[in-house]
Specification:
Distance between the termini of chain A: 16 Å
Number of domains of chain B: 4
CATH superfamily of the largest domain in chain B: Histidine kinase-like ATPase, C-terminal domain
Strand content of chain A: 15-25%
Oligomer: heterodimer
Largest sheet of chain B: 5 strands, antiparallel
Radius of gyration of chain B: 57 Å
Number of strands of chain A: 5
CATH topology of the largest domain in chain B: Heat Shock Protein 90
Largest interface: A-B, 23 and 29 residues
Low-confidence stretches of chain B: none
CATH architecture of the largest domain in chain B: 2-Layer Sandwich
Shape of chain A: globular
Order of helices and strands of chain A: EHEHEHEHEH
Mean pLDDT of chain A: 85
Structural class of chain A: alpha/beta
CATH architecture of chain A: 3-Layer(aba) Sandwich
Helix content of chain A: 40-55%
CATH topology of chain A: Rossmann fold
Number of domains of chain A: 1
Number of helices of chain B: 19
Distance between the termini of chain B: 140 Å
Strand order of the largest sheet of chain A: 2-1-3-4-5
Shape of chain B: rod-shaped
Chain lengths: ~130, ~625
């Protein structure tokens, strides 16, 4: 089952238990996983390690997910990396971020707690 | 003998008649010489003996140019003429002269008898009458039975114009027929005096209001021949009346429609004015005014007791009046002494109903509380989602561990489950405490005492973590209505946050200062730490969501709860912070609101007490 060319997912999440959960879930499904607990670190790793996909939380201390999302979009080396947002923020935020002119809409938007099958299906769709 | 006796009688009678007649009698001959005269004549014109009549009558030296006696000498006819002469005192006199011929047997006029009656007094009366008639400040007309004006005075002419041959209704009112309710008609009918109010039209077209009196003037064969109409112009009075009425109506309308309740009482405390707003406010439905005793029960004591000088005013910004049913209504109350040209007339009270304002204030407090709950619920959903995610993650990992026989994953998943279960428990507890007690239980407390208790409680704990707790109590801080457990929770939250921040500072010397003070009618609690501080992002979030920077340690409810309690007290909380230097959390509690709340709470308690009593019945 492990792919010869395993895809890399960067998980940006401040909540330790949620982080453990997501990391386990992605690994079990055959992905390589990178982690960051805040937006600032997340952006640095994205630039240096070029993950195939980023899973991003919105509400985090140091630097919010929105700021990181904008930074990724403005940086040429990261602007093509697909981002899926996994957040506790209500669905109204989905409409908000998708309608911004400054950034492209995210590749996926999932509310916590997540529907694992849906997340997996969307990731596969994006990466293939 | 008989004829001789007769001649004797005739002689005597002639002499007596001459003397007794109430006229001045003189007899002149054809040379105008006075040959005989009676005593009246002598007393009137003086000595006449041997003088000419023109000398005696008028002091002339030759006959008068228009002498009527000459005519009578010629034709022997009786004449009555007006004349004037000079009496023995040299005063001009008016008289009527009656000239009669005395003829001899041949019918020739030998003498003329002149009988004069003095008219000087009559003339004077006539002049006075004319003057009165013309100049009296009334309109006077004399009308005949056909209502034709036969005489009118100057003032009438001046005001109503030419009258000759016109009917009175034509001139007075420009009518073509007699006026209805004409008092002159009545007077012609019954000969009595009649009075009535009329409106005429002046020659300039303006209206003239007058009161007219009609009196019978003279009688003819078929009753009253003439009526005199005397009319007094009251247009100016009418004008004043109308101005007065207008002024009255204006004030009446202002008072009636004022939203402010207005009551005026006279010197004896009797109510004279009570406008609809005052009636509504005091629940006074009766048409009559309340008695002095009633008014005393309704209005504040000061209204009756206070001494008021000119320009003084009783001004009670937060007072109350008592309605007819005995209920107190909060009002802004003002009162002034009513005076007219220095004379005291009574007092007036102005009452502005404040119950609506109080209600709005209460509604605003409620709305703020609701908003606080709204924010809380939104934040709560977020926190719960995170915890659900944790629980789900724990289960997932345990399941995967079981499937793959990976005991490490099972343990890890189980730990996550446990942690999130505990978090859920804590959250539920915090939330219950957060959600309880919508209205704070207010007691009059010393804010400094409250602050000192909290500092004492946490001093050792802080010291163990290397943080100093300091109290800076303001000396001017007065007791305030506060919910003790609520404010304790707030201060505990602020201080423990401060301690956490101070612990995270780089280097030793961490401290948290709790300050109290008064500022612009607000009671202020301030927590000042020299800890790590917060950047803009964090500052934005501290009060708005279940936000925590403490990883798994906090539920994010501390500051939310604090803010909620502060808002329930009608206050606000704000934060100043510089990353690396520290934060200041400031609670502001406006004293006016605290007092309003205390009143509200106590009245609610009264109501619930009443309800309890009612339930008990």
């Amino acid at each position: 089952m492990p792919d010869t060319t395993a895809k890399k997912i960067l998980v940006v999440e401040d909540e330790p238990d949620v982080m453990t959960y997501l990391v386990t879930f992605f690994k079990v499904n055959g992905f390589d996983v990178l982690i960051a607990t805040d937006g600032k670190t997340g952006f640095e790793i994205a630039k240096s390690d070029h993950p195939d996909l980023i899973s991003l939380d919105i509400t985090m201390p140091k630097e919010s997910g929105v700021r990181m999302y904008r930074n990724l979009h403005d940086e040429p080396s990261t602007k093509d990396i697909p981002v899926i947002i996994i957040t506790g923020v209500s669905s109204e935020f989905k409409g908000f971020i998708e309608s911004r002119k400054q950034v492209n809409p995210p590749a996926g938007y999932f509310e916590k707690p997540i529907d694992r099958e849906a997340v997996l299906a969307r990731i596969k769709e994006i990466l293939n | 003998m008989e004829s001789k006796a007769l001649t004797q009688v005739e002689k005597l009678l002639g002499r007596e008649l001459l003397e007794q007649m109430p006229f001045n009698i003189a007899v002149i001959d054809r040379d105008f010489r006075v040959v005989a005269a009676n005593k009246n004549f002598s007393e009137y014109f003086g000595d006449w003996n041997g003088r000419h009549c023109y000398e005696v009558y008028k002091g002339l030296y030759q006959p008068c140019p228009d002498c009527d006696a000459i005519a009578t000498f010629k034709d022997g006819k009786v004449r009555v003429v007006d004349g004037s002469g000079i009496d023995r005192h040299g005063i001009t006199r008016h008289y009527v002269a009656h000239l009669a011929p005395l003829m001899d047997e041949e019918g020739k006029v030998q003498y003329v008898i002149e009988m004069t009656t003095d008219l000087t007094e009559t003339r004077r009366w006539q002049r006075e009458y004319d003057l009165l008639f013309e100049r009296v400040p009334c309109y006077i007309t004399v009308i005949d039975k056909d209502y034709r004006i036969i005489r009118a005075n100057e003032k009438f002419h001046h005001t109503f114009g030419e009258v000759r041959g016109k009917y009175c209704y034509e001139v007075y009112k420009r009518r073509k027929s007699p006026c209805p309710k004409c008092p002159a008609i009545e007077t012609f009918k019954d000969g009595a005096e009649h009075v009535s109010n009329q409106v005429g039209i002046r020659r300039d077209g303006t209206e003239a209001h007058y009161v007219v009196t009609t009196s019978p003037l003279s009688r003819g064969e078929t009753g009253i021949a003439h009526v005199i109409e005397i009319a007094t112009d009251i247009t100016d009075i009418r004008k004043l009346e109308s101005q007065l009425r207008q002024a009255h109506d204006l004030y009446e309308s202002l008072i009636s429609n004022s939203a402010t309740g207005i009551i005026a009482v006279d010197q004896d405390g009797k109510s004279k004015i009570m406008n609809p707003a005052a009636r509504a406010l005091l629940d006074w439905k009766a048409r009559r005014m309340p008695s002095a005793d009633r008014i005393e029960k309704m209005l504040p004591r000061e209204f009756f007791d206070a001494q008021l000088d000119t320009d003084d005013m009783i001004n009670i910004t937060s007072g109350s009046v008592t309605t007819n049913r005995g209920e107190d209504v909060p009002v802004r109350f003002r009162a002034v002494e009513l005076k007219s040209r220095g004379k005291r007339l009574g007092r007036a009270a102005f009452m502005q109903d404040l119950s609506e304002l109080k209600r709005l204030e209460e509604e605003k407090l409620d709305a703020e509380r609701l908003a606080a709950v709204g924010h809380t619920v939104a934040g709560l959903a977020h926190t719960i989602k995170n915890m659900l995610m944790g629980l789900e993650g724990g289960m997932y990992m345990a399941n995967i561990g079981l499937q793959q026989g990976d005991s490490e994953l099972i343990v890890e998943g189980w730990e996550i489950l446990q942690r999130n279960f505990e978090k859920t428990t804590t959250l539920v507890k915090d939330f219950l405490s957060f959600a309880k007690g919508r209205i704070p239980e207010l007691r009059l407390l010393d804010p400094n005492g409250l602050a000192k208790d909290i500092i004492d409680l946490y001093r050792d704990t802080a010291r163990k973590q290397g943080v100093e707790l300091i109290l800076e109590a303001g000396q001017d801080v007065e007791p305030a209505f506060l919910d003790p457990s609520g404010i304790e929770t707030c201060l505990t939250n602020l201080i423990s946050n401060g301690i956490d921040a101070a612990v995270m500072r780089e280097g030793a010397g961490g401290q948290v200062i709790l300050k109290t003070r008064e500022e612009d009618g607000q009671l202020i609690f301030e927590s000042v730490d020299n800890g790590c501080g917060m950047d803009w992002d964090v500052k934005q979030k501290v009060f708005t969501t279940f936000f925590t920077t403490k990883g798994g340690k906090g539920t994010g409810l501390g500051l939310l709860t604090t803010r909620k309690i502060v808002q329930e007290h009608g206050g606000s909380i704000e934060v100043d912070s510089i990353p690396g230097e520290g934060s200041v959390f400031r609670i502001r509690l406006p004293r006016a609101r605290l007092e309003a709340l205390a009143e509200q709470v106590s009245s609610n308690e009264k109501i619930s007490e009443q309800e309890l009593q009612n339930d008990g019945k």
